[in-house]
Fold these 4 entries.
Entry 1:
Amino acid sequence: MLRIHVEEKCNRATLRLEGKLAGVWVQELERCYQDALSGPDNRALVIELDAVTFVDDEGRSLLREMHEAGATLVGRGAQCRHLVQEIQQQGTG
Amino acid sequence: MDFERHYEALLEMADIMGHHRSLPELFSELAKRLHPVTAFELASFARYDPEKKVMQVHMWERTGSAGAPTEVPVESSPSGWVWQTQQPLVVRDLQVEERFPRVFDLFREKGLRSYCVIPLTTAQRRLGALGLGSSQLNAYQEEDMRLLGRVAELVAMALENSLTRQALHDEKERLQTLLEISRALVSSLDLKQLCPTIVESLGRVMKVDHASLALCEPEAGGLRVHARSTPVKGIEVGTFITSLDSVAARALREGKVAFFNRSDPRMERSLAVSGLFELGVESGCCVPLITSKRALGTLNLASTHRSAFASADIDLLNQVASQVAVALDNAKAYQEIADLKDKLSKEKLYLEDEILTELNFEEIIGESSALKRVLTQAKIVAPSDATTLILGETGTGKELIARAIHRMSSRKDASFIKLNCAAIPTGLLESELFGHEKGAFTGAINQKVGRLELADKGTLFLDEVGDIPPELQPKLLRVLQDQEFERLGSARTIRVSIRLIAATNRDLADSVANREFRSDLYYRLNVFPLRMPPLRERSTDIPLLVRYFVQKFARRMNKQIETIPTETMNALVSWEWPGNVRELENFIERSVILSSGSVLKVPLTELRPVYEQSSKASTLESLEREHIIRALRETRGVISGVKGAAARLGLKRTTLQSRIQKMGISRTDYEG
């Protein structure tokens, strides 16, 4: 189960994720991400991963795509921080 | 001569009685036949109407033309007097007669001078009266009265037959009505469709133009309209009727049919009824819908005819209402069951999700080739329904992979039932597996459904299958081969469809060699063996697992741990983890408890013996190894049991097996 909170403020949309980013929930996040993209052109997109408990390979790929498309990934905690760092390093590497 | 004419006229009339189609036609014909033998200008037939308590009077002129029937109060009518007293009435001169002025004034206007009335009565009931009027003075003599008496007997019989036929016809129509309404209720309980059906069906036997159903809402203290046959202002579906003075509320309060009429001044206050009156409704009734348990609401009927609903209709209305009430009650009970089932199903899904989330059965953490190889094999075997044997040390995640196989199989929507064969006393294991009937053995105070039955159409996971006692092994083999078994204490064979996944940390081949495990069961279980790699063979997964567990426990303990020092991680990766992932998980939980800041604080001293690879530790390990080999030699390789090596060393069997494996002790070390 993944819960996605969408917060839209001025020039910024935040997708706050809670639970497992795996299986069918990856598609659900992608749908929300596409909706968020359809907003104003120059607004920032932030993906908050603090409350994510598990990410499968597909979820990881989607996060990477979002990062490459300009979304900011934010994650606290040993696992999420490592995940964000890993994706960012792959992006720059 | 008169006698012959009378006799012939009576025969003709008797013939007509047998062939008439309707009462008006009968009287018209009778009047024609009667005229040649008795002088009269006007014939009357009066019938008592028990509903209205009046005399319904029909009149025929000599020419055969009939006037419209009129209602005359019993006490104002000469026919009424005859009907009441059952005596014939002969008025020889109407000019001097003072009784019954309302009727006799009319006769006098028509030029009649004399009049006679004979009662129409059968053995069963008093029906009415037959009358003749003549323009001649004193026209009816004794002989005429005798003839009329005979004619009256014939007419009464014909009338009785006609009334019986009508009653039978009415009864048939009522039964047909009930049948139609029953059929409509049985085929579907669509309330929207029910009201038009009721109007149509009841229309056979009474003048119904509108029907509606109002159901009780006790919490709100009123009734709510749920369906109606025709749009009526004030009786829209969903309208709430609160007024205690409403006709429907009266019907419910009194538990009987409540009638209403347009002429009733109290009706003006009711919004719902005034809507009906705007549509030309003249009368109506509300029938309470009552079951043996409760009052459900009212069936409301309305008609554009005055006094359309008579007390004679009450029985039928109550029968219809009773059927509607039972059907509504059943529908309500069914709905409650469906709601509960739905709720249970949702709760089950929720709980399953909770279990998966809590126990992390869904996630298998790791990217090592050793783990990926096992996952690939699991994906291959999952859809095949084949029995799977998962081998591996304790704490390697055998149950996790078993659940993953179940989830990837076609049985994923059915249950995954687990049984740890080592955790249950031997004596109870059979009962746990197969179930038992009440009284099957001392202590079997209730019937119990076994895990095999619970796992029907799903997956049964037998953990520690190597610990199944020898006497139970043939029974399990039979279930695997034939998919059938009997509960303890029952002769009834139960057929099931089960996919078995077994797991063990024992070397089953060795157990077979030691005659601790049946070879036929071993081969039956060993269809597709999967070996879970110990954590030391997938050390590249340790950082992932450490981060995962740190985040999991930090969240649970409401801590924020951001950093795991490199030295700590290296130490964790270097440790051999004899207890595998379970040991790592427990160790990390302990570490998170000990960590107060954002850095994970690990009690590294617990890992040092292996991490530092001290020579002293090696010596201790070699001493331990030698001690175990000695014990095995003394017990001739037997590990379990009271005379086994585990008991001699004061260790659990599984612990000893783990150490033997870890230290690489083989059979050649202690044999020969």
Entry 2:
Amino acid sequence: MKHNRMRAHFAGILVLLFAGVGQVTFAQESHIGGLTGEASRGKKLYRRYCVGCHGPLGDGRGENAPWIDPKPRDFVTGTFKCRSTPTGALPTDEDLYKSVTRGFVNSNMPSWLPLTRQQRADLVAYVKTFSSSFREEKPPSPLSMPSESAANQQSIQSGNELYQKMNCWSCHGKEGRGDGPSAQTLVDNRGYPIPPYDFSVGTRFKCGESNQDLYRILMTGLDGTPMPSFANGLTPAQAWDVVHYIRTLQMNVKRKKQTAENEKKDGGESKPVGAQPE
Amino acid sequence: MLLRLRAAVIFILVLGVVLSVRQPAHAIPAFARKYDLPCSACHEAWPKLNDFGIAFRDRGYQLGNEKDSPIWQNPSYWPITFRITPEWHRESSSNQVVDTVPGNPALGQTYQDVTTHGFDFSGLDIWAAGTLYKDISFSVLPSADSSGSFHFENVFVRFDNLFRTRWLNLKLGKFELDNLVSEKRMLFLSSNGGFYQVYHYTPFREVQFRASNPPIVQFNPVFGIGDNQLGVELSGHSENSYARYSVALLSSNEGSPGLPNRTYDGWASFNQGFAVGKLGVQRVGAFAFFGQRPTFFNTSFGSPVLSEGLGNKSLYRAGLTGLFYIKKVDFSTVFVHGWDNVFLGTGTAANAPLPVGARGPTWNGGFVETHFTYSPQLVFVQRNEIVRMSRQVFRTDPRDLGDIDAFSFGLRYYPFMFSRAGLALHTEYSLVRSYKSASPLPTSTSPFGPDLRSSSVFIGLDFAF
């Protein structure tokens, strides 16, 4: 009887150990398409490319951090701006991979596209080791994205109304210049001032440049910043309307001309605006 | 035993205070300061670029994060980089012709090894480079030799992404020819190892001719693949810079300002990178140069009009390049085939008859340079290089006349790696053997001497700020 109890305890410990090892193994790998990234290789790359800003502990306190604005991401908290997952959730490996590949416009984070796909996957695997969140939970499934509605005058008008109704203007300003009444008061989750995006100047967004990227930003929010998720406040069709309206705030003459021409050509049923970013 | 080991280590360290930069080498902490990236982000081991550094350079010193234009920089930012190398070096050359009794040439000459050594410092680079505006970049590199005499190593303005395509970038000025294996970014600094023999090779007969014809030397009739040239370059690259090309139209004056010389050279290079699983990017490429050089000069009442070279004759170089990575070891490989017109090869003016039986010289050469990057802060380097004449100017010349064997090895240790400055302890040994290239003794009946062996030992502190 005593022996049986001991055996049960021993087996329990083994199960726990294996479960722990399994989780560690999961956190030390990334899976992007057919690629498997390994943290051991990613560590060397991180030390070469990333440590100056993100720091050896991944806490965004690298030696260059004091001089950088916006501040480097703190990987330890497990909070990431660009995700395909709901607000508050961990990003998928693919999300992190895209961030590494794309870089962040208007920041010091460059595009690491010159690194091979394998190297970027390895980096993602290593970045995940900084936060215990990746060991303790699994990222949920990405938000579904219905196909884009037509960017016609009606959609843009509806987007304009939603832009007012949802108070987007309070940060981004009535003309999208990032000069809303709340703009000066915004801070990120580390207490650093953060300006709202100025649509009139930028052609690319923090998390991509296509309409799909913009839709995703609206519906997932940018965690760690004051930009909330509108997944509960907007229907997918409404979100597309807002996307279409925001595109009109971008002072891109060529795109506006294209819109007008498309509308004329299609009798008001224009093609998606900005679907092919320049 | 321990004491001996310690003594040996101290000896090596003391010996290890290093020397003479043959080529101004390129590493720009000003960029690191601008973008807050460590040297290792762009350099495998500075000054050698890695894949990210290649892409950054190809984009016109831009990261593409909408903050590249200088208007986004703090006004106090000044894009200047200094580089210099205090050093100790030892140079030795075999078979030098010296007087049997110093100061008394009448008593005859003999061969002797000549060796010098001592403390020294390299030339100084004061390099400004960066962006003038979005998609407009520049570089100005005044470079001094160790005596303080300045020249402009490079000066150019580059327009990037013309017609909104990264495949069209235009550069005007004096610049390094685009090639996969850059001599400006090599990890060797000594007098013998600090340049690629095959990039600057000139057949022995031609060297003899130039030595005996000072006026023609003023036209700078040489061509070095590693030398910066004056001209205009059109280049392009894929988004990740794995595919790259460059074509350039150059003045036939080896980058010497004030010597237009009326003719032009052409350069073209192409290289392609392949992502090979866990090994990283492997690159292969090819290049070709076709040019002309004068063989005589106009005269006025018998005196040379030096600004006008005449009787231009052609030369070409063509080759293959490769960069291969296997984990921490990488290989830079180059093969070059060269040909000079017979008038250049024999040093004959184009309006004079050629020596009987003379032929245009051809040669082949190449090297394998190996780097073992233990970490971004410690790299071991080694290079084997050969040049072989495939056709001598005269059939009667020895087949190996002017052939070269060269071997170098060393290490670079970077005690720190951050985004403000760079420092490397550089140690190197280099040996070059030039076949039958020593001067013959006056009593010799042969026009050729024995083999010439030159070696360098170099220990220095290479720093850039």
Entry 3:
Amino acid sequence: MLSLIVLGFYPLIFIVLTALSESSLGRPFQEWVGTANLEAALGDDDVVASLLRNTIYAIFVSAASAVLGVATALALFRSARSGAVVRTLLLLPMITPPVVVGILWKLIFNPSGGLFNTVLSFFGYSGDPVSVLASPTFAFLGIAVADVWEWTPLIALLVFAALLGQDPELTEAAALDGAGGIRLFAQITLPAIAGTIAAAFLIRIVLAFKVFDLVYIMTAGGPGQSTTVPAYLIYQAALQQFDLGRAGTITLLLAVVVTVVTLPVVAITRRLHHD
Amino acid sequence: MIKRSSRLATVTVGVALLFTLLPLAYLLSVSLMKQGEISAGIVWPSNPEWGNWVDAAASRLPRGILNSVITSLGGAVLTLVIALPAAWAMVRYRTGGRTLAATILSPWLLPPIVAVVPLFTLLRVLGLNNTLAGLTIVYALANTAVAVWLLEGFVRKLPVELDEAAQLDGAGAFRVLGSIVVPLLTPGLVAVGVIVAVLNYNEFVLATFLTQGPEAQTVPVVLSLMLGERLQDFGKIAAASLIGVIPVFAAAVFLQRWLVAGLVSGSVK
């Protein structure tokens, strides 16, 4: 109960109070300003753009992770050769510290001598070295690749476990009745694992909205604002500009956006689990 | 079930393995390169050298690993101590009904950066800023909700008759918890403990803003500081990253079964 208050409610109340007041890091709650912070944040293009950016990013990386994760899980399930060693190796990205993931992909995308450029030139590319993380267009894609690499194993693991948990008699009966290949998958396997896929997708979206370490390590929000996610704006507001009112307001806006985006997924997950 | 192996499946597993391991192999390769080789665009050094590993081992890294291990294990044990009675009460006595479980998990939806300022203020008041004790307490509380959520799945599978039998014999709630639930739940506790310890070990945001000196800085913080140095030594950073992940990778290899059981129990209930 104590932990609930300390970690759940204390920061929440703190955030709401700061959002409603003029607060600095040294002197919080100087003056109550009502909705002035909210109006300022909603009128700030950087804030609105970062919320939108993170939403698109979350949907994109979650979809990519879901497709790759389900494909890997199905392949693991159908391949007789994959033992415990292969499964452990496939899980490694998920337990690698995000800071190391960031360092790793920063080295790969390093314009001077990184693996990405070495591979490009191996395939005949001969122009200037490509600097993925310094490009306003591609920097976010670079972070997305690292993010997908890190979290696809989680989806693969959860879906794989659901595949193992299927009722084998059902599959056998369907196979005996002549269902095979795609039909067996679409009518028997997919319905059995759909609930798990939806739940894994939900977890994945939330993880994508929480991305901070990768941005901090790989691009520091740049170039320009092109990889600035709300979590990074909150960091800048609170710990660089010492404007807690602004940080609290962006936090509340982010909470609203995460809720709105995840609600349909939550509804789908519930329905699939109750069938 | 007749398990048919398909060629497509084997190829897909192969591609997944390649995509998973290639970046890690490249990290190893860079850690064995000399400064000039890193910018030369080669895949593997012609003369692998361990100099970067020696440099990394002579830095603040070993202290960081010690700090990480202390805070992640200490935090995990404290988390279990808090989370087990909570999960048990929520399953057996329906404490808080359906809403409590969802409510305590809701802060997990937000990036941890939002908790930094309030926690910083709190630790300063308690005099625990920049200490291992402070960071351990923060970790213990930060993962309690996730641990409750994961443990619920394990507690649900325990037969309720055992509790009832013990109660009929006159055991109180805490006695039942200590002598019946804990021994039966050991696999679940280990599984959730491993997950929470790994989460703690990998945590960066809270560690970097709640610690200011080498006596409390953890592995991710030490690595980010190396990246922030004016002359970035990529070879040393790569070596330090690999040394830093050894504890979690070792945990994954030796405790894989529990790690998997814990993750699966949370999502499939």
Entry 4:
Amino acid sequence: MATSATSTRARVAATLKRRHRSEFLFRAFGLAAIALSLLALATLFIDIVWRARTAFVQTTITLEVFLDESIIDPEGKRDPAELRRSDTQTPIRAALRERFPEVTNQGQRRELYALLSGSAPFLLASRLVREPELIGQRIKVDLLASDDVDMLMKGHISRDLPPEQRQINDRQIGWVDAMVAAGEVRQPFNAGFFTRGDSRDPTTAGVLGAIVGSALTLLVTLALSFPLAIAAAVYLEEFAPDNRWTYLIEININNLAAVPSIVFGLLGLAVFLNFFGLPRSAPLVGGMVLSLMTLPVIIIAARAAIAAVPPSIREAAMGVGASPVQVVFHHVVPLALPGILTGTIIGMARALGETAPLLMIGMVAFIVDTPKGFTDAASVLPVQIFLWADSPERAFVERTAAATLVLLGFLVVMNATAVYLRRRFEVRY
Amino acid sequence: MNATFLFVVIVLLAAMGYWLGRARALAVAGGKGRVLHSLPSQHGALVALWAAVPAVIALLAWTLLVPEGQRAVNPWLRVALVVATAGAGLWLALQRVRARQRARNHVEAVIRLLLLLASAVAILTTVGIVLSLLFESLRFFALVPPHEFLLGLDWAPQTAIRADQIGQSGSFGAVPVFVGTLLIAFIAMAVATPVGLMAAIWMAEYAGERVRATVKPVLEILAGVPTVVYGFFAALTVASIVRRAGESIGLEVASESALAAGLVMGIMILPFVASISDDVIRAVPVSLRHGSMALGATHSETVRRVIVPAALPGIVGGVLLGVSRAIGETMIVVMAAGLSANLTANPFAAVTTVTVQIVGLLTGDQEFDSAKTLSAFALGLVLFFVTLALNVLALQIVRRYREAYD
């Protein structure tokens, strides 16, 4: 007896060190896993913020431009439509030649002109539409620099690279430096990023069109999925008999929540576009597809909220003579509403970040104008990010990251609202 | 006279019906509300329903039954039909307002029917998905035999757009696409499963309440990041890190390597696996833990030999759901994986996936009778059924092998 007890104890003692070491290792692995996940999250956010940091300012070049009436508005009618198309490029180029009179060679002049964004004349023209009294005057104008100058100023194009590997040559860098020294190059806040739509030219590309498109799409999603989800959840929780039909509906809802989003896009393409002939790229169709996707999410949340309303509330209402429908709509749904709203906001946040199904229904088209209605061609924020991420120009990288920040900002606000609603109105019975 | 306008007319007539019906019920009651079986508002609602429902049905019937050519003959005929139906319904219902009429029961029956229809949308959606995928896939399989699609080793869907173009007849052997999908999903799960599981074990077993209360929501942020953001991160940052790391040890790495897409997808799925594992680990009863520790096992031995085996069905179910997500994930691979179908298991090579092909095939030209566009639906059909099978399997495993404690 004694010997076996000692031998057991001896065996335990012999292995104890190894066991404690493996305990320590196991724990370290767990901590490492957490650290790795948090590191991934931090890297993701820091990477995006770091890339986006320069997108919120935009390089401009100040030039003294003589707005020659004989070129801009030879007929002197100040007609806005004519002014919008007027030739502002000639005066701007003249101003550049005036600034650098030593440049006489034709090829070098072309390089000089390339310092300014191709959109600069259009922006000046639309300013003249608003302020026609400027025509005929000699004024100082801040003109958008080209994306290459912008990238140079922001340090994204290295001066150390051999000239053939960068889009901007030594002569151009010399001119830019001369203007920087003269204080003619500024970097004001990039308001255009928030007030303009998409553009092929990175200097004038903005997110407003995509934000409006996202808002219209989400409005359709909300209008369709919110009432339908409440109705379905009320039916399943309060009225559905315990039979095969109900079971089938429940299985379907749970399965739809796990169907890949792109399959919903295929459904939208085949049914909404090809079968019903609804317009391509429209927020209406995008919202319909997204509402089919978010319905299961909201239904599941709404069911949980309705189930959390205690039976005593129902019994009390029944006791004073309310009918089952009155019990539900006068008492149960209002009490469950905070929970339902929380689920709805979380579902909307998901819909806002969704990209793949919208590619299927043509919301991937290049759209400059801000959409005005539910059937206009539109893009949405995540699709805009996808399109810009695909663009070859270096200057789109910071804009993609900035658009991502805008998207994440909206998501943070929505989720914070959901958390607030839950905290503020949650009732524990 | 478009349908929207007619719809507004119907709504207006229904509103009028509500008001008239309510007034009528009040008049019938003669000021003594308790002689009425139902509330005046319920009588109003019933009259409104009688005005609206037959009119909407008439409008739908007209749209479906009257052929396109004859509609233009007399546009006012439709207006007359709808208004007459609504008016007749309204008038008839008004005549039937009585003190003992069970207006509430009728109205509530309609409401319950509407609730039932709303919940049936889920079924309609599933049916719509299956039918649209099946229908387009059948058209595809009429052009390309199914065995060639499922077993062929060459994927080059570019078909000639004009008949006089040479070459490019297109071949639709989807095996390289499937292999690419599985390769990326495998890499993703190789990241997500161990890291997610260990993170869950640490959170459930070792972390204090306060640490857990901060770490868990932070991890869930990872699950809320839109996939297009992950795609941007994968294509720009991770891909170049992977390439540089590979080249520094002398490997040839494609710029759109499977490894970069898989790694980032793993990060995306990680919180999902961690969250499910955390739930099932915490569901293991404390008595098992105490029993094991009372026998002298260390904490990690208890976790490895008692808790994880007890929670295994739930963990396996979570991992399978993760695989289903990895296979169906689109944006990360569209942005970070390649378009050309290479049949390889090399994680440093560029491969393509089912979802990348679907996006690539359907975002260019739109010709709905070419094998090229239709093949996207066949891929979608495979994707739908594979993910469905994985989901059902995961739920089955969880349900069948769940140990019933106490």
